[in-house]
Amino acid sequence: MSKNVLIVESPSKAKTIKKFLGPDFEVLSSVGHIKDLPEKELGVDIQHDFKPRYVTIRGKIKIIQRLKNAAREARMVYLAPDPDREGEAIAWHIANIIDLPSERVRRVLFNEITAHGIKTGISQPRMLDLNLVNAQQARRVLDRIVGYQVSPFLWKTLYRGLSAGRVQSVAVRIICDREAEIQAFRTQEYWELFADLASGTPPLFSAKCIRIQGKKPQISNESEALFHLERLKTATLTVETIDQKEIRKSPAPPFTTSTLQQEATRKLKFTPHRTMLAAQQLYEGVEINGQPVGLITYMRTDSVRISGEALTSARALIAEHWGAAYLPANPRHFKNTRKNIQDAHEGIRPTRFDLAPEVVAASLTPDQRKLYSLIWNRFIASQMAPALYRQKLVDIRAGDYLLRSQGNELLFDGYLKVYRQDKKEEEEISKLPPDLQPGLPLTVRQWRPEQKFTEPPSRFTDGTLIRELDTLGIGRPSTYASIVTTVLERKYIERQKGYLLPTELGQTVNRILIEGMDEIFNVQFTEKMEAALDFIESSRRDWIEVIREFYQPFHQALEQMDARRATIKGGIQLKAGQSCELCGAEMLIKWSKNGKFLACSAFPKCRHTRPLDEPESRAEAPDKVCPACQSPMVIKEGRYGKFYACSNYPRCKTTEPFSTHIACPAPGCDGVMVAKRTRKGKLFYGCNRYPACKFATWNQPVNQSCPLCGFGMLEQKQTRDLRTILYCGHCKSEINTPDESTYQAKDE
Questions:
Q1: Structure pTM?
Q2: Sign of torsion, CA 432 438 440 443?
């Protein structure tokens, strides 16, 4: 036994840590989880205290054998997956498979991947925390039970392949409820009265009418506005009171996972997934001058607590770069205001204060650079002096009317020197005239009646949805990004101009779940379960007891919903008002994974179907005849998209791939691109001259040449953050939409 072995879950983290440890350590990676519940079965023995059955994840056998071989020869094995519940579960599975005596296995935590962070973690080993393991295990079992027992109900009611999730379904409900509020909202007209005023000295300033005969104005139409305006025109305006005070505005706390994702969505237009991907890379380490450096602390946290050492370093940096005026007398400590805070890690902050964003910019990708600057500036600003404003409120009397003008003058920028959070901080606030005093008469330069309308609540963005989930206590730092990604991938939600809207499918699934299991898929119940998982972590609850308490009402609700399945299904299967062309029965509107379609109500006796948006049962393909029987070919829609089929079906079952009518871009080829399928049914597009021409792509062809390299075809591609882009497969460039003025290469 010559070496210690340290095991992490990420290969890139292993590479970084290896350079901080001496030759006494071998650093290995499990490449994520090595064990999980089976993919195609429940994997939970409900009859025997919900015992989970873990299986080896596909492709991990060689990794497991390598870990076992290394551990067998090691003096000590240190388990160092991420410092959270999921990391503890990974460490527990690794400990089980290497099967060493407990005195040779220790758990270590790295809050930052730096020399100091690694040294601190190694010097503070502990035993595995089974409370953390059980909390993660309980979450996994709960989610599996919900997903594997509710999803089949959706299959029977709508179509196979749909899924329900304990938390994701509640997130969909929140978005659907907001959309219902917006649709039910009735806009109301109202008017506000403004005056542009002048005193003896510049500048001009405006005032708003805030009282009419001592009451708040309620002006509902133009005629009322004009009536008040005529009375105001005859009034004399004088300054009644002036209230002046200095206001200190303190900076926001360092980022938590939730606030980081919110701010990155708002300022950088990053999706939560994109944010967490860049943050993971910054945490695990990037090459700076040939050496790996973890630039930020662990990025999954709900705490704003900061270590004393970091506070000392930040204060020294502030004093050096901005001077003593920008340094408060004492370090600023923030308190968590939400309940059920785990507070396991510090807030998100830089690990090294000699590596400012401009110093490391050349070593970072664009996403890493933007996110690191955001984290750096927010943390440094959190320890700077407050901004100081002079606020002046001026009330102006005009007979029965009272107008008010407000001015905010920035006296000292403080933390605003580094970080401005909202638009109000980013704008110059105009000053009021210096000669204003009680009794001073004012001159009206212009009266401005403004028509306005009440507005419905805003739709959620990625960031505001995460803020809502965080506020309601739904989900945890490690789950926010996956919640948003999952509901988008399931096509229950779609993103339009940055806002999240429920799709018709999402609203339908939400309606089914609310009608059938309202007591399970609601905010209050989900919040209660999240709190119970936290109690397991703190050893205040037994994980089996928590699941048992959940399962009894859940199973009862599921049975009741299943008993009402015919009624629920009947409520969503609408009559189309058309008759079947084959048997004359009523046609129904049904769902499939490709959307709505028309199906004969006499199923299974009559299996006739057709697309919902086609007025006829078949759409003929012009100039296309069946090569087998010479009958006209028709265009049909299958599970893999459109295809040509013989109109003489079922006597002739000939089919052919659907042509895009886009010329193959391969040099010297006169073929066209057609839709094809792999042996496993995956859709791709290839030249119809195959095998003479083997050009093919997974992406949908677009009949447009590349403006950068002139290649004859573009592709419609979906990125990892679920954006749909135009892409050139030849020069590997992302092509901006036609309304944008420039084109940008992918690697810029």
A1: 0.79
A2: positive
